[in-house]
Amino acid sequence: MALRIAFGQYYAADSPIHRLDARTKVIGALALMLLTFFVRTPAQLALALAFAAALTATSRVSAARLLEAARPLLVMVVLLSLFNLLLVRGGETLVSLGPVTITSAGAWAAVLYSLRVAIAICAGLLLLLATTPTELTDAFEAILSPLARLGLPAHELAMVFSLMLRFIPTLADELSAILDAQRSRGASLSQGSPARRLRSLVPVIVALLASALHHANGLSRTLDARCFAAGAPRTHWHPLRLGREDAVAALVLVAFATGLIALGQVTQLPVAP
Amino acid sequence: MPAAAEKSVASLSHVTLRYERGALALDDVSLDVRAGEHVCVLGANGSGKSTLALVLAGLLAPDAGDVTLLGEQVLAGGHVDFAAYGRARRGLGLVFQNPDDQIVTTVVEDDVAFGPENLCVEPAQIERRVRRELDRVAMGAFAKADPTRLSGGQKQRVAIAGALAMEPRLLVLDEPGALLDVRGRRAIMRVMGRLRAAGTTIVHVTHFMEEALAADRVIVLSEGKVALSGTPEQVFSHAEKIAALGLEEPFCARLASRLQALGVGVDWTVDDDALTRRLASLLAAAPAAPAPAPVPSPAEPSPATPGDEPAILADDVSFAYGSADHAHALDHVSLSVAPGASVAIVGQTGSGKSTLARIACALETPDAGRMVVGGIDTATRRNRRLLHGRIGYVMQHPERQLFAETVLKDVAFGPTNLGLSAEEVARRSRRALAIVGLADKADASPFELSGGQQRLCAIAGVLAMRPRTLVLDEPTAGLDPRGRTQLARILADVHARGVTVAVVTHSMDDAALAQQVIVLDRSHVMADGTPASVFAEKSAASLADAGLGLPTALSWALALRDAGAPDLGAPLTLDALATAIASRLALAAPAAPGAPAAPGEPVGPREVR
Predict the structure, then answer these.
(1) What residues of A are in contact with residue B402 (Cβ under 8 Å)?
(2) CA distance to partner chain B, nearest, from residue A167 (Å)
(3) Entry pTM
(4) Which of A245, A247, B288, B381 has its Cα between 20 and 30 A from that of B345?
(5) Pairing label, strands B38-42, A93-97
(6) Does residue A89 belong to the interface with chain B, where contact is any CB pair within 8 Å?
(7) Using CA atoms, how far apart are residues B230 and B236, in angstroms rounded to an integer?
């Protein structure tokens, strides 16, 4: 099919990152995403980028595959940097063309915010690419299990998340088939007034919903046939087990966090805010 | 009790099940499945086969009757015992049609492990089962693969491995091959052969009569009732009843009947080998005759008048999808289709057939080369929009794209987009519905139609645009024999009105009935010509290499020759084969050799007996 989404698809490889306990990876990725908010100076940015690059290299995920998976999100990064470039004012004026004014603070903000988001995306994608959905489901279940006592259905939430990842490509294929069918029947999905375009989306959405319901029926039959019962005890083929590697990973992450925050104290911003 | 429980795996007694809308899905059904048995369930669409499969898999409780599954009485006099159902279900496996809905994770081996994990099997034991079952379905090399990138047949084998890893005492397969190509279906049949040898109890629901021949027992359902039951031979001997139930006998049985009608002294049989041996000895003993009378090809290509604009002209077309894993979908493809022709496009999954169809329908533009449809080049956006009104595209499973409140509104979508007047839209839509035989359903919701009717409704939506060229991508996939015959009639009707009909198909028997056959193999055109030129003995090896076979009739002719019979020419249809045999035996009626194979039958992409 024409529309292929590489988002959230496991990349089989044998690397130290792949071998880590899924819980370590989930918490590590979340920590890394949070840490990007502390990045303010060029030195910090360089350190964070170097760390992300080192992580990618360690995971043995090919850069091409990472980029392919990131493609749908990169549009967002580009838009974000454009907004910053044009809207943030401060420092000296670099370019002034009619209504467009680019200042040094705007340029720095464009670089900083887009790279921060890029690092966060890299962390998230490495987690998804180097962890099987089953491991992810188990990890989320384990992490959320303290909340289960408060009535939060941890395993079910994790299962729904994993099924969502599984069905994204299937529904994307269906969507592209529906668009093909309607275009070949003369539908004008990219022409006319906004109101008309919006109207022409209705048949697409109805058909996609019908198809999603159809899949949902099949899927619930599968879950029944394979004896999945919400809340019932089950075993794990690869039980989660924290090992020496996880301890090493935790230490590396703590060292990175400390270094990053310390670096923020001693280095300067390139432009006065 | 223990002895009885061991013998009978599933037992249904006077079971009745009513759908929500009140229609009876199962009507007083009684049957027993014994341990180690391979039972095949046949029936037209809507006969209750799938409902029966769900009941046997413990996923649907009937409204009345008694059901015992794996020794657990789950239903007694219409009273459901949920605890017993829960226990029984642990030993019941189900695989159904759509492989996409049966895979719950994005790694093959994890998916196989999902069932055993739910059954609380020990990790070491799960490991053993996953490896064993992946090997059994020949998917061991794909253990780490992403199922969404596998072919339908491979996914279905993963689904079977997932069911087998739960070590079910009864495996229910509900049309596992319905959505697969020939190679995919053959692989499933091989797996089933292995399971049968291992003593697994199997209930197999299918639309393919040939598959039923492998069963110990065949049950034919009709309107929720057991219409016929017995060995394959017993069941298929009721030729008239089988036809009346919307089914079709296997090729061998039809050939034997046809030969008997022509006066050849053969016994009716469903045993391929027996019939081959008998015919070979008859033919070898026949007096040496001159070269066989030329077998009339059922469809000679109509000589295109020079100067006619080709309906479809591909000139050195190449195309690749964006992502890295589809290297080339089409690689320097050139072909031409005469206006008003009927064309079959064959090739296994991934050969580029569907891409060719999409490019011909102006949904995609070639990366290199030109695609000209009815004299209009698809290169510009304006031309593509123009073509969307002139070339009709019926994609795979078009019924999944229905959306409107009524059948009539759904069909009217295309003509309305063409900017026609309301009266003209209504006229065309009603006419299209009449062609597909759904005139009386105009005001029904498309979602209330049966699967086969939904397919016809979607096709009507394309016909209502009055396309000059109609491209259909596997239009018969998942239909029962009656639905396939009906669709063949509709297409023959449309073709007789001068519409160019191009059908992407997995069936070599269907392809043999077209005027032109285009064979695609790994993004290239491997062969292009009349059925007689494409399906010849000398091309058998290259077709096999492309994952394809020969039309059944031709395979039979070659098998007969290998068994010592003289050359029968190259018959491509059952009738041509029967006529060739009869004329060899000098038994044919004088008019037979020159007469068309199926008098009165319009040229269509499907053999109609």
Answers:
(1) 207, 210
(2) 9
(3) 0.82
(4) B381
(5) unpaired
(6) no
(7) 9
* Distance in angstroms (rounded) separating the CA atoms of residues B102 and B165: 14
First to last CA, chain A: 49
Cα of B209 to nearest chain A Cα, Å: 25
Distances (CA, A) of B244 to B12, B165, B248, B482, B608: 26, 40, 9, 10, 15
Q: Compute the distance between CA of residue B159 and CA of residue B150 in angstroms, rounded to an integer.
A: 12
On the CB side of B473, CA atoms within 13 Å amount to: 24
Q: What is the pLDDT of residues B576-597, one digit of tens each?
A: 999 999 888 875 444 444 444 4
Say which of B57, B401, B417 has its CB closest to residue A181.
B401
Using one digit for the tens of pLDDT, what is the confidence trace for B161-211? 999 999 999 999 999 988 787 788 888 888 888 888 888 999 999 988 889
Pair B172, B39: CB distance under 8 Å: no
Contact A126, A61 (CB under 8 A): yes
Secondary structure (DSSP) of B6-72: HHEEEEEEEEEEE-TTS-EEEEEEEEEEETT-EEEEE--TTSSHHHHHHHHTTSS--SEEEEEETTE
- Secondary structure class of B122 (helix, strand, coil): coil
Whether A132 contacts B146, CB under 8 Å: no
Using left for φ > 0, alpha for ψ between -120 and 50, and beta otherwise, residue A90 falls in left
Residue A132 has pLDDT above 60, yes or no: yes
Average of per-residue pLDDT values in chain A: 86
Nearest to A170 among B100, B388, B389 (CB): B100
Average pLDDT over residues B542-561: 89
DSSP letter at B421 equals -
Q: ipTM of the predicted structure?
A: 0.83
Exposure string of B271-292, with b = 16+ CB inside 10 Å and e = fewer, is: bbeebbebbbebbeeeeeeeeb
Residue B528: CB partners within 8 Å, gap ≥ 6?
A: B335, B516, B517, B518, B519, B534
Interface contact flag, A68 B324, Cβ < 8 Å:
yes
Q: pLDDT at residue A273 above 80?
A: no
Share of chain B above pLDDT 90, in %: 61
A185 in contact with B at a CB cutoff of 8 Å?
yes
Please, which residues 532-561 of chain B have a Cβ atom closer than 8 Å to chain A?
none
Query: Residue A60: CB partners within 8 Å, gap ≥ 6?
Result: A13, A14, A15, A17, A18
